[in-house]
Please model this.
Amino acid sequence: MKTVVVPLGPFHPLLEEAEYFKLTVEGETVVDVDLKVGYMHRGIEKLSQSKTFDQVPFLVERICGICSTSHPLAYVNAVEDLLGVEPPERALYVRTIIAELERIHSHLLWVGLAGHFIGYDTVFMWAWRYREPVLDLFELISGNRNHYAMMKVGGVRRDIPEDAYPKINATLDEVQKGTEMFIGAVMDDPVIHARTKGIGVLTPEAARAYGTLGPTVRGSGIPDDIRRDDPYAAYERVEWKVCTWDGGDVFAKAAVRLLEIVEAIRIIRQCTEQMRQGAIDLDLQNIGPGEGIGHAEAPRGEVFHYVRSDGSPKPVRHKVRAPSLMNIPSFKATCIGQQVADAALITAAVDPCYCCTERTMVMEGDRMVLSGGDLVAMSRDKTARIRDALGSVPPVEKLVKEVMRR
Amino acid sequence: MMKPSLWGLKKSPWVYHVALSPCNNCDIEILDVLTPRFDVERFGVKLVGSPRHADALLVTGSINRHVLPRFVELYRQTAKPCVVFAVGSCALSSSMFRDSYNIVGPLDKVMKEIDPAAIVAYVPGCPPKPEAIIAGVVKALKAL
Amino acid sequence: MTSVLDDLRSELGTRLLQVVQKNPRRAYVKLSDADLPAAAKFLLGRGGRLATISGIDTRNGVELLYHFAFAAEHVMVTLKTLLPKPLPRTASLAGWLPAANWSEREIHDLLGVTFADHPDPRRLLLADSWPEGVHPLRRDFKGLPDENRGSAAGAVSPAP
Model:
């Protein structure tokens, strides 16, 4: 019996963590899952206590690179809850636009990685290609492709100038085309169905028991979404719908993410249409004593922040809980009984960091027998076998040929 | 005449990505250099799956107490000669985490202890743009 | 919000030591830790979701906050309890509520609270080399005597 030691990625309460994910395998089947974390603990909650309230967003932005809007947003929501204030309307719209743009490029990142694990590197390249215009937009608006430093207690740090709107719309048009292509290619492909349907199923009961969040829980048909359940920013001012899919498998989670990109585009367009000129900041001076809870729907699920103040310039306590703290333990429910060749994909389905699978290892005693690339290779081999059996052409290749032919 | 191993490193560096305790933005930008817009493979740079095959380590994130011994072990396993790239503010200086109870210190200080002869290159940014990463790698290799 | 609080009051009556509705979406309920599992079970059955558990070291003890989200009512109800130092201890919910598992382990690491009968009381976040009995979020934590700071010399051989 080989013991597979699998380090997995991100999204941990105090910071993104590589978890060591120990799969016990009998033959090809996973019979147990053990998780060990601590590799990325940076002590952010303690650091917060040494920062002023206005410095904290810069710190929590760096909890997670791909949820770098969500943590500051949840934090400012918490402090505003403490104070009982709401930022000016324009700030709410700007926050929403930034948050939804992040959702788009985060989900595209995920689509690319899932494609890579399955063996469709064209999907990886194309999905990441469509991320670039979104990152360019962020650079235009905020000055940085990542870590935008937009959120501030009481408002936003920078406005989105109106001459950026044409660029925003053009980018959304481009991303929309790409997403429609993915949806068309991926949702009906028989090989992708074979690799993702019925794989890594998280039942609604298990989803609730583990307190799972985001596309992980919505892929089990449960419509939990903080943007609707405890609205913040401008989500109550625009029309949008919570995306769910039944089945709880990898396919369902993928479907939810693709649909959410479409909804995000819709939300951003409404924001740019509706927002009026106005103040973007309440210009708050002091944070009095009290406590507040703020959360935000990050691409991976609820990011939760609790802040307590005693009237001094620094938080007395700042609790951070990222969605992966709830989602990753659910591997116990989704991996046991599944094949090793599916392990990479099942773990990818809750959207952990990509760097995890690079560090996957199969150990025999102290010796590394298989490297990370090998476990992904096992996943890709499985796809190749299925594809050969079905005699099918990879979906995006089909579409690319089609497009190039015209 | 240049040692063959160094020549290989300069002509077509095989890089292994080591994420210590990053926020993953540097890691994502590193992966980004593989994608069509930047396409680093045209420079012969290849991301490998094991440190044993690597000419260069792209190290992201600050070093925390838990990951430190594992990094020491990883560096020992890495084929030499090898260039260690500190990618991003966290690897360079631990950034805003340097006062944390769990952070050990900047990468180069640790490298000095593990291997005083180590070649360390720095790519600053939070995160460094893909262009900066490519420029940093090319610049360092030219200097060897 | 009121319906959730009313139902909680009906269920637990005077076992609720204090109920504060801070605003239409946030309420904080103080109770003794002995009553916490019953209150938690009730809120979960009432449709709540445990978002997480926070812990704070205060002069009077370690305060635990159990945050429950109610999607339909758009509110969060937080149960608060105070555990006496130096050895704060309370019942674990993780045996019947997987969602509490990692939250409790985290609080144990950072604040030194013991959750009795936790199914998996292993260290969660702190390094293998971190000393026992030292909890970084305690007010009196001033840092470790720094054998590992800035130095690879303190590196201990890893077990994965």
Chain C touches chain A at residues 22-23, 25-26, 28, 49-52, 54-56, 65, 67, 69, 71, 74-76, 78, 97-99, 101-103, 106, 110, 123-128, 136-137, 160 (CB under 8 Å). The two ends of chain C are 47 Å apart (CA to CA). The first helix of chain C runs from residue 2 to 12. The beta strands of chain C are 16-23, 26-31, 49-58, 61-70, 75-83, 89-91, 114-116.
